[in-house]
Design a protein that fits this description.
With about 140 residues, the chain is an alpha/beta fold. The protein has a domain of about 90 residues: 2-Layer Sandwich (GMP Synthetase, Chain A, domain 3). Helix content is about 30%, strand content about 30%. Strands 4, 5, 6 and 7 form a four-stranded mixed beta sheet that branches. Helix 1 crosses helix 2. It is globular and about 55 Å long. The two termini are about 20 Å apart. The N terminus is likely disordered.
Length: about 140
């Protein structure tokens, strides 16, 4: 199996609008007219959104690369956490876990993580405060 990687990163321009209320809650509107509510009343705070954005950005970039490399991904789960470094500044740790069906696929997947990070504008912004700790599991087809 060859591990083919895609061309240039897929950049996107994003706009969104936040409308805050008196209770420090907000409705975020995207350019596509989608909305999400954020704030203490929703139990969804800005640092949760940052972790969610980073985690989903990594997943999207990775799955795109895996598809281009023709690596069949059987499953993908991820967790994110804020860790505090020795200097007291937070660092975002992403721990994705991918399931594939062969050792060849697992070796190919291991090579895709750095490019997946580079493909994501969100992850490049966080680069110096980001740690990606991927796990690859092989599960033979039943």
């Amino acid at each position: 199996m060859t591990c083919k990687q895609s061309d240039a990163p897929d950049e996107c321009g994003c706009t969104l609008e936040l409308i805050w209320d008196e209770g420090l809650n907000a409705t975020a509107l995207t350019g596509a007219s989608s909305s999400i509510c954020v704030g203490p009343a929703m139990n969804l705070l800005p640092h949760h959104l940052l972790a969610l954005a980073a985690s989903s950005s990594l997943m999207t970039a990775f799955l795109d690369l895996a598809g281009a490399a023709r690596v069949p991904v059987q499953g993908y789960v991820s967790s994110a956490r804020l860790d505090y470094r020795g200097d007291g500044d937070p660092e975002l740790a992403l721990a994705p876990c991918v399931v594939v069906s062969s050792q060849d696929d697992a070796q190919c997947v291991a090579k895709l993580w750095p490019e997946a990070v580079e493909r994501s504008p969100a992850l490049r912004i966080l680069r110096h405060r980001l740690r990606v700790e991927p796990t690859v599991r092989v599960a033979a087809p039943v």
